Amino acid sequence: MKLQSNFRIQALLLSITVLLSAVKFMAWLLTGSNAIFTDALESLVNVAAGAFALYSLYLAAKPKDEDHPYGHGKIEFISATVEGSLIAAAGIAILIKSVYSLLYPEPLSRLDYGILLTAFTGVINFGMGWFAVKRGKKTNSATLRAGGKHLLSDAWSTAALIAGLLLLRFTGLQWIDTAIALVFGAYILYTGITILRESVAGIMDEADPKLIAEMVNLLNKNRRSEWIDIHNLRIIKYGASIHIDCHVTLAFYYTVEEAHEEAENVHRLIQEHYGKDVEIFVHIDPCLPSSCKLCGIDSCKKRSEPFKGQTAWTAENVVLNKRHGL
Length: 326
Description:
Distance between the termini: 45 Å
CATH class of the largest domain: Mainly Alpha
Number of strands: 3
Low-confidence stretches: none
Strand order of the largest sheet: 1-2-3
Strand content: 5-15%
Number of domains: 2
């Protein structure tokens, strides 16, 4: 349901973006301003990236199948990669056009109309960007987060652009227009590289320190004495879905049924927190004699050492593929 809802949201955002792009190009044609051209060109990138994002959300919403046992969520990272690449390309194009205009300046006209039209698009972009980022965080959608961040950066750059155009309007210094275009061309290029970096990290299954720390905090707050140890924790994101692997050390004398019940307790805890879009594989390890000093099970009759205390789980030690010790 979340993915289907995200698809409808992205479709609405794309439709509005197309209209805003037309308004920005109208403002550029009216004024001939290089600064407004940077805004218009970026909006064209928004349309292309938004269309690809819409398709990626359509694929991500498809259920798992034999060819894609982990689902289709990875397409969201590819979508963000394409968007980052397009934004970076737009930044480079703007810088080239700005340098050309600096060497061969052209007169500006109807600047008042251009400022009003650009301000209107900036307000709409800010509202859409804020909503997309909020929704993307809530549903763990890389596509909506990337698109929202892009729209927010577009809105803030539009605000600064308008300030520069107002300065130009009252001073008459035409070089200000080209200077604004150069600054925002560099900023757009930086934004594109940042989004590209984040999306590639997702494709490469780079560890998410924030998500791991959040998971460890959840486990520590709800720790059971039966869980002697948790280690080799791995978290992989597939778009809006999360895949989790971990090893849990339990008493060696547990029956298969008892061990399974503890694994289910871990599973339920995590799923209650993150929702149904999470897949968890729990590997059970039997305790060793050296585990006794970490084991807080009071009723254990197989203890070879007295209990000394539990090891504090941290984001640094739960990811290691080895049992913990004091």
